[in-house]
Design brief:
171 residues, alpha+beta, Endo-n-acetylneuraminidase fold, three-stranded mixed β-sheet, three-stranded antiparallel β-sheet, 23% helix, flat
């Protein structure tokens, strides 16, 4: 029962995050760019934007709660129990597992061999993703279609370009 309550809380927080990030977008219609008619609509946020919002919320206010006999949420840290749990706080019942290490029982793949970004400081950076184990760098050649031109009628003619790039993977 307690876990269902916590899961319901998570669903509400996720739904609220989506609702907060919905944006109004408008487009003008008219002769030569005039705004004779204006059409507006609500636009859903990108999934990454919602995820980042929830992660920021988690980083700011996650509270570990104890499973209490009366099914009430209360702070696990006894020195903070007098502080009420606010409705905008995220709570968690169980500690998160270690996602750095493979755990087949939990379906966690770990981060060994994952490609990471050496120059970026976000969640896919080598510093964060590799969990302090470091990373390997190898030089690879990438091929892509380039210098494409439309040939009348009816096909596209492209060249193949290649360039070398460093690929970083977690140890």
């Amino acid at each position: 029962m307690f876990d269902k309550t916590a899961n319901f809380n998570y669903v509400k927080k996720g739904s609220k995050a989506v609702a907060e990030l919905v944006r109004r977008q408008c487009r003008c219609h008219g002769v030569s760019g005039s705004c004779e008619f204006k059409t507006c609509w609500q636009s859903m946020p990108r999934l990454g934007e919602v995820g980042q919002h929830l992660k920021n919320l988690y980083d700011r206010s996650a509270v570990q709660v104890a499973k209490h006999a009366r099914k009430r949420l209360r702070r696990k840290n006894k020195f903070e129990r007098r502080i009420r749990i606010r409705t905008n706080e995220l709570v968690y019942v169980n500690r998160s597992p270690n996602y750095c290490v493979r755990n087949a029982n939990l379906g966690i793949l770990g981060t060994y061999g994952r490609q990471c970004n050496k120059t970026y400081s976000g969640s896919d950076s080598c510093d964060v993703l590799c969990c302090g184990r470091g990373y390997d760098t190898r030089l690879t050649v990438r091929y892509e279609r380039c210098h494409c031109k439309f040939v009348w009628c009816c096909y596209v003619n492209c060249k193949t370009c290649s360039w070398e790039m460093d690929v970083h993977t977690c140890k």
